[in-house]
Amino acid sequence: MPRNHLPDHDAPTRGGGWIPHGYHLETHSHADGQLVYAAVGAVATTTARGTWVAPAGRVTWTPPGFGHSHRFYGRTDIRLFTVPAALCPELAPVPSVFAVNALLREALLALTGDREPRPGADDRLRAVVVDELAAAPDDQSLHLPEPHDDRLRAVTGLVHADPGIDATLSELGRRAGASERTLSRLFQAELGMGFHRWRTILRVHYALALLTDGRSVTDTAIECGWSNPSTFIDAFTEIVGQTPGRYQAGFRDRP
């Protein structure tokens, strides 16, 4: 498949290309599993279970049958690779994000590149990819779960609409018609984390998009709700695994 074209939703094996900032691929599903790797830029994959953001250095995994959409941040060199359904039981049964080590990166780039493989080469590389991912822990740090309870959805919707909103859970609860105590219980029961942790991950998601689009670290911090850039840098580094400046430097000089 030419590297300058995205495959159709049901494309059989592999492909990719350069995607402009903000491009959105509507909800769809596949009969096989799919790996999406941003060699440059970042991709957000959304399912009914929430949103996973994968900057360069991580790969998203969507098992067969899961409806999902993608949004791309920055000019993204996206690589799409299908895992045949017969191999999918070896990988996670739910959408996930995994860190990409050097071996996995090179295998993914080779599988989605323009080269003419020798007979059997793709099968051998595919086995490497599956082996590496089967042994890798799911990286939950950038997973933003979404609620089902209407009261909780009302609150999270307010934060989605304005990630920088400076309101307590009690204040948001009054707007949503629910008490702080009830909402705190629901955050833990449905999302497995407290409100502040959930909002921090959401803000980092938005920060990744802004940084990838060239926004400065200070402007990104302010827009996403941090009054102190150093606090933003600490939160970003804890979740993403690198500072905002190092993250930007990784793609600033790419084509």
UniProtKB/TrEMBL annotation:
Entry keyword annotation includes Amino-acid biosynthesis: no
Annotated HTH araC/xylS-type domain residues: 153-250
Keywords, ordered alphabetically: Transcription, Transcription regulation
PROSITE patterns for this protein: HTH_ARAC_FAMILY_2
InterPro entries per UniProt: Homeodomain-like_sf (IPR009057), HTH_AraC (IPR018060), RmlC_Cupin_sf (IPR011051)
Keyword Transcription belongs to the record: yes
PANTHER family in alphabetical order: HTH-TYPE TRANSCRIPTIONAL REGULATOR NIMR
This protein's name: Helix-turn-helix transcriptional regulator
Native species: Kineosporia mesophila
